[in-house]
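Hello forum,

I keep getting stuck at the same step: I have a sequence, I want structure tokens, and every attempt I make locally crashes halfway through. Rather than fight my setup again tonight, could one of you with a working pipeline run this one for me? It's a single chain of 523 residues.
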Amino acid sequence: MSFEYATVRRRSFERDAKVIMEVSPDGLRATIHVTPPVGQRSDITEDQIRQSLRHKGIVFGVKDDVIKRIASEKLYMKPLEVAVGQTPVDGEHARIILQYLADHRMQDRSLDNLKSVDLRELDKIVNTKAGNILVQKIPCTYGRPGTSVTGKNLRQKPGQDIRLRVGKGVKFDPVEHVYVAQRNGHVIFRNDRISVEDVFETQDVNPRTGNIRVNGTVIVHGLVNDGYTVEASGEVHIAGSVGAVTIKAGGNVIINGGICGAGACTIESTGGSVAAKFAQDATITAGSSIILEDYAKDCVLQAGEVIRVVNETRGNGFIVGGKAVALNEIQADQLGTEMEIGTEICVGIDPATLRVIEANEATLRMNQEKFEKLVRSLTFLQRARRAEGNLGEKKEEIYNKLRTILPALRASIDDTRADYHTRIERIVGHVRSKVASMRSYPGVHLRIGGEHMHVTKFEERVAYVSGKNGLLQLFVTDMDYREHLKNVDADVIAAKREEEEANADQAADETDEPALTEETGTE
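Reply #2:
Ran it on my machine without issues. Output:
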């Protein structure tokens, strides 16, 4: 058997370093992976890498330092980021900053503060003034496009704008991108529209609405529940009646129904008038007038000009109990009642001045009583000192204190009396001030300027004015009583005063308090 031998030639495998280039799906990154050469073939070079980049179309964001490192350090079998694109920047959406809420004070309703939370304060109404910035708009941005490593433009997503419509009382400043209030009022932001309303309307004031405090006018079509507050810089109009409530307005307060205050009702109009059908157990203050149709019972009425309780149809509007103070005039169909209920009527003095005068009167009474009591004590000690020659240490100390206190107290009394008389002198002679009534009953205490008078008998169709020697009564006999009272002007009153003063006896001089001697402080 013969064999044939075949010669097998061993095949050698050699290869240059190879570049593998990968681009991320978003086109923003290129990764290089270099395989080493096989055999005696060539290592990787910068030119080879750059040629591979060009072949792949990678032209943007190429990292030259990475290419040089790969070539110089022979970084094989290690994936490296060789190019980075520019990421597109999406635009920001427009947004708004509600500046009108910045100064809006709200109650602390945290669990730690629940005991002090007023459940009537719901903080729903936000007031503002003309010129205030209500909303600041931060415009949307369009962003910035990006670029892939292959040089392709990558689109960004632009931000979305916000459409905010301008309502009444608001103006938009396109330069500053702000919405500015054009008038005083409360802010309404509803259905992408911002406005400033100067009239606030509600059916009722109750737990659903909470207390109402508005920079403008308030209109209540129904009732104001007890315990609630309505405050307005403008007017307040209430269709129904009110009870134990607090109402404050810069303008008029008009109540179609009545006022049943139960001793816990305060109604105040600083710059206007208060009008209602009737009032009972309430405190009513008006910068101008108080107008009631039926009656005022056990009320404190204070008006800067006129108080009028007149029923044009029945002629039975009356003021009974309480106190009524007006600068110019008080007119009522009836003052007091047959039951002689105490009723204070005061004109010729504005309410603020009257409060000071009454405070002075109360201080004078209190200090005078104190003064007389101390004088009696000092007199007693003086007599004991003279009789016994020695009071003892404790009584002697009291004696010396009284000698120091009495002159100081007397000086205080004199100062208070001087201030009292100064204020009285300023208001005496207010000839246009008068009280007019179709019927006046005993129990009515009149004060016109600095003069006082108690009505002691029933009188009809009378007007009261002040004179130097007391109050004068002008009896009216005309059938049209109210029209006649309008004609009782300053000249008529002045003439009546002169006639009264000519016939009156000289008033007795007022007796001064006893003077203190230097030694004892007694007469």
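Residues 95-108+118-144+153-196 form a domain with the OB fold (Dihydrolipoamide Acetyltransferase, E2P) fold (CATH 2.40.50.100). If your local run keeps crashing, start a new thread with the error log.
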